[in-house]
């Protein structure tokens, strides 16, 4: 397949981050397979319930925008694919007066999602990333 953007697994990856930005945590978490794993902020989450709980713990005054680029798709077989991509994440924090700060770059990550086609839908069975920018030391200073 030459146009990765048309593959349903790629659409699922993009839908995941769109749901995060809309704060639709139930939808995002529901894209994980029942025993799917997500390495998030150094902790392994297993299954939709753990993912949903972690997402619900996000600060309510934090808005995000996730940009998915440089998508590569590796088809293992008809039911298993790996989607590798860069994720550029921006965030803005609203203060107590309701004023939102200017969006700032939160991170640039290289991500890989392993997906499986089960029934009639793709599910994330493993979601991992590694920080590309800013360097880990700079990120830990916040």
């Amino acid at each position: 397949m030459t146009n990765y953007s048309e593959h349903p697994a790629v659409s699922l990856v993009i839908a995941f981050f769109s749901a995060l930005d809309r704060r639709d945590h139930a939808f995002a978490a529901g894209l994980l397979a029942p025993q799917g794993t997500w390495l998030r902020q150094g902790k392994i989450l297993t299954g939709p319930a753990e993912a949903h709980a972690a997402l619900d713990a996000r600060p309510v005054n934090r808005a995000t925008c996730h940009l998915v680029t440089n998508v590569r798709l590796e088809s293992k077989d008809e039911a298993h694919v790996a989607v590798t991509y860069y994720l550029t994440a921006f965030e803005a924090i609203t203060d107590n007066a309701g004023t939102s700060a200017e969006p700032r770059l939160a991170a640039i990550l290289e991500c890989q999602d392993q997906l499986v086609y089960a029934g009639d839908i793709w599910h994330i069975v493993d979601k991992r990333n590694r920080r590309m920018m800013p360097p880990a030391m700079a990120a830990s200073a916040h």
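Helices lie at 8-22, 25-30, 47-56, 136-139. The CA atoms of residues 77 and 86 lie 23 Å apart.
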